[in-house]
Amino acid sequence: MLDADVKRRIMVEVDRRFDDQTRVLADLVKIPSTRFREAPAQDMMARLFKEDGLSVDRWRVKIDDLKHLPGYSPHSQDYDDAWNVVGAWRPANSSGRSLILNGHIDVVPEGPHEMWARNPFEPAIRDGWMYGRGAGDMKAGLILNLFALRALRALGWQPAADIYQQSVVEEECTGNGALACLQRGYRADAALIPEPSSGVLTVAQVGVMWFQVKVTGHPVHVYKAEAGSNAIESAYRLIRELRELEKKWNAKKVHDEHFCEHHHPVNFNVGKIAGGDWASSVPAWCTFDMRVGVLPSQNLRECRQEIEDVIRQAAANDPFLGNNPPTVTWEGFQAEPFVLRNHEQVRVVLADAHETVFGAALEDKSSTGTADNRFFGLYAGIPALVYGPRSDDIHGFDERVNLDSVRKITQATALFIADWCGLSRC
Q1: Are 78 and 93 contained in the same domain?
Q2: Do 341 and 382 share a structural domain?
């Protein structure tokens, strides 16, 4: 454990540099990095890593390198401009425990700009919060990783073990960016991911699956609508049946130690829907995309089969769909549920850092979302801790991150790095 004076000096140095950290975060939020547009933001991350004297590895993610690996999620979109960036610190004589500091650069679509209080890519600070798409999820985390290490270097110290700062794509739709880091060979004794968590540690999370359902109809003029088959209304009936399956899966929580007390751990969400061509024609088609959660006690393959069975049975009861069944396509997240295990040693170090900064014990939580920690834990045997600042309205309008929370998590991260990796003089 670090002595009290070292802890104090590290925390003071983080505070001293925090205005600069906030400015760099704002610069990153200004760069729109929705999926397929991440490259300019990754250019900035590569530049920041280079400024810190890190070895920079920037490569294009290739599906052919990943599709045979466990944890891969199918994606038919073009990967020609999908870039990962890793900044590596490798001491000449490593004596501590190595660490991955992982974060994702991609952000979800911002939606109609007129529904935001201000342009989502013009970050603004109000009442101690920074507003902007990606400010919380999770560019604040990427930049706090950077500045935690900068604070140590400013004090004349450097980590005594290998550290890999990873800025990855695809976290919001597949996780294939983090998988690509494993495929490239990056391994460490632990991983820390500052996803927004309000300063608590994620110890369990649901699995997540995406799928698309295509429904056909029989188009006729609306004056004889009863002679046709309305694909949009048929899609609504299928969605209602899937909602019944959601209830069934939520009932399974009583057998799950991590989610048994949660009021509604499994969420089915219709995220996209489109259909029809003309208001006066019975629609011939409808397509909807759904995201579903999966409890740790469930199996993805069996869950996919249940969903397909529900859709098939619902279609069989429809005169038209019985002979023209909907099709189900699985693309995007096929993320297994994850429970953090074999993490006692690394948790002790993080808990000490957290208590030093916050003056309270580190708490655990279970998440009804997913994060890239699953790749490290499930497929590489690396204990991966999700622990980050407080954010509100991520994926919504007026996303924001609490700057005092960012400052404190930066302090805790710097203390964690110093204790876990060890320190040596520059």
Answers
A1: yes
A2: yes
What pLDDT, in 10s, does the model give residues 156-171? Answer: 999 999 999 999 999 9
Q: Which of 335, 365, 397 is the last residue of a domain?
A: 335
Provide the residue range defining the domain that includes 49.
Answer: 4-205+337-425
Contacts of 344 (CB under 8 A, 6+ apart): none
71 with 137, same domain?
yes
Q: What is the CATH number of the domain that holds 352?
A: 3.40.630.10
Question: Using CB atoms within 10 A of its CB, is residue 106 exposed (0-12), middle (13-18) or buried (19+)?
Answer: buried
Question: Are 197 and 224 members of one domain?
Answer: no
Asked if 189 and 229 sit in the same domain, the reply is: no
Summarize pLDDT for 403-423 with one digit per residue, the tens: 999 999 999 999 999 999 999
Q: What Å distances lie between residue 324 and 20, 230, 306, CA to CA?
A: 60, 13, 20
Indicate the pTM of the whole model. Answer: 0.96
